[in-house]
Design brief:
The chain contains four helices and five strands, in the order E-E-E-H-E-H-E-H-H. The chain is α/β, with parallel strands linked by helices. Strand 4 (51-55), helix 2 (63-71) and strand 5 (75-79) form a beta-alpha-beta unit.
Amino acid sequence: MVIIGVDPHQTEHIAVALDSDGRILGQRCVPNHPKGFASLADWAAQFPQPRWAIEGAANHFTLPLSRYLAQQGARIHNIHPALTSQYRRRVERRKDDQRDRLGDRVAEDGGD
């Protein structure tokens, strides 16, 4: 199983692909517009049936990406932003985009 965690930003989205052991398989940063969404989907196509864990999948920064991926048949899981901040507190670290994406995976897996 591959999970692609996405940390959204106003102008770009940062994604990391993780295997079931949490190893990083790759990462991508794309602009927050339709060409960036297509680029991200093309990159993710190398992974068989990835599950998407998107922080705040329905917020105004990420909704267009979530809709685009859903139209492509992607399986999307909304990760509430509070879960990534709670994960940061548990591991006593400041904000870090890569750790946020890893936190998305932890939240997606229910803390496993």
